[in-house]
């Protein structure tokens, strides 16, 4: 999608929030109807039946009739598509939409093409029941048949046009690059480049810590607590914007420079999973230490470096040119001689092979192994451990 920042007036912001509220209400009502339906009642109402029920409800309730019928019917159409995707096994089960978290609605049809460019930097779009809303033109506005208007947690409004961007063509040089993702170094390339995802500055981190302490002292439900939470949300949104921008620039650069991009086949959802708790047999009602605080810090580091976002954008920009390699022993195998041992990893950043003595950056060494595909064989088996001990030689007869 091509997303642009919107700048509605105060009255338009109120109208957009009302449309989001109507779309959220219709979605949740359809989800409740689908969740509570039983087999003895017959088939579940489809999109056409729900539209008929919506028409009857709009004729009876004036507050529902005040919203856009196009927005409400589109919410039902989106819900019907979500149910079809869930039954097909391609998507998750539809969930409830919450106020302040899922703020947005979608417009399709002829209304989606009502976009007028004002000048080089500004354009406006016609939104039903709202009017002409301006948005910033940061790139070429695509010709789309639908768009979605959404509001993030910081109160910023965006418009996203539903288009599939063209893929980046391969340079044709035949070069292969390996990408090793880490926490201290966001992405290490087999060429020796170390890329770091920008986050909050030291001053911003100090302010975030100060705001978090203030939040802990605020009374729940107070206006001061809401102001502090809004300030914390803005800092987190700033870090998210920087991470997304870095992911876009890095993925575009890799797709333009290399023909084949090899990454580790990591399951991020399992890596950031909380550690299991085990009861302490000596102390009933208590649990054994499981290092959850250290694991929580590691999880924050993984998510802050955008491991999954980088691979998703690479697959979208360079389809068919992204290969996933089994990550087993890539950080313990020497990229020069191929000797595999845990003693090779001297520290988090230093790799020193105990066999050939090669010393290099640990992440770059792993990236070279990923680029060479040394972690997998034809049967996708991990390489065996190589021993440096020499076999005893039998005495030769004179």
TrEMBL record:
Q: A Pfam family name for this chain?
A: Cas12f1-like_TNB
The GO annotation for biological process reads:
DNA recombination; transposition
Which is an annotated GO molecular function term of this record?
DNA binding
Cas12f1-like TNB domain ranges (all copies): 307-370
UniProt xrefs under InterPro entries:
Cas12f1-like_TNB (IPR010095), Transposase (IPR001959), Transposase_put_HTH (IPR021027)
Which positions fall inside the Probable transposase IS891/IS1136/IS1341 domain? 171-273
Bias (Basic and acidic residues) occurs at 378-392
What residues does the Transposase putative helix-turn-helix domain cover?
Answer: 3-37
* Keywords for this protein: DNA recombination, DNA-binding, Metal-binding, Transposition, Zinc
Chain intervals for the UniProt region annotation (Disordered) = 375-398
* The family this protein is said to belong to: In the C-terminal section; belongs to the transposase 35 family.
Under what name is this protein listed? Transposase
Species of origin reads Kribbella sp. HUAS MG21
């Amino acid at each position: 999608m091509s997303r642009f920042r919107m700048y509605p007036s105060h009255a338009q912001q109120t109208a957009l929030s009302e449309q989001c509220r109507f779309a959220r209400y219709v979605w949740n009502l359809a989800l409740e109807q689908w969740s509570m339906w039983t087999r003895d009642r017959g088939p579940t109402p489809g999109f056409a039946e729900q539209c008929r029920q919506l028409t009857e409800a709009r004729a009876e309730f004036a507050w529902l009739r005040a919203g856009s019928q196009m927005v409400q019917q589109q919410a039902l159409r989106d819900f019907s598509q979500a149910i079809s995707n869930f039954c097909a096994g391609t998507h998750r089960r539809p969930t409830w939409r919450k106020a302040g978290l899922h703020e947005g609605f979608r417009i399709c049809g002829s209304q989606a093409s009502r976009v007028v460019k004002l000048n080089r930097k500004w354009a406006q779009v016609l939104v039903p029941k709202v009017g002409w809303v301006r948005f910033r033109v940061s790139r070429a506005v695509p010709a789309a048949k639908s768009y979605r208007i959404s509001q993030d947690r910081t109160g910023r409004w965006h418009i996203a046009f539903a288009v599939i961007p063209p893929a980046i063509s391969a340079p044709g040089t035949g070069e292969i690059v390996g990408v090793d993702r880490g926490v201290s170094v966001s992405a290490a390339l087999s060429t020796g480049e170390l890329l770091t995802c920008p986050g909050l500055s030291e001053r911003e981190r100090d302010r975030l810590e100060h705001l978090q302490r203030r939040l802990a002292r605020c009374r729940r439900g107070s206006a001061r607590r809401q102001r502090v939470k809004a300030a914390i949300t803005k800092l987190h949104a700033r870090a998210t914007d920087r991470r997304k921008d870095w992911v876009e620039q890095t993925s575009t650069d890799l797709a333009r420079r290399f023909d084949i991009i090899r990454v580790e086949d990591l399951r991020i959802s399992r890596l950031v999973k909380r550690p299991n708790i085990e009861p302490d047999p000596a102390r009933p009602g208590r649990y054994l230490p499981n290092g959850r605080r250290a694991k929580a810090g590691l999880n924050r580091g993984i998510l802050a470096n955008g491991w999954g976002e980088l691979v998703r954008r690479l697959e979208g920009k360079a389809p068919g040119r992204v290969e996933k390699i089994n990550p087993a022993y890539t950080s313990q195998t020497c990229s020069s001689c191929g000797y595999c041992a845990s003693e090779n990893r001297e520290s988090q950043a230093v790799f020193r092979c105990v066999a050939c003595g090669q010393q290099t950056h640990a992440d770059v060494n792993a990236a070279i192994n990923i680029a060479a595909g040394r972690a997998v064989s034809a049967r996708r088996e991990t390489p065996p451990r190589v021993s440096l001990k020499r076999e005893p030689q039998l005495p030769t007869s004179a």
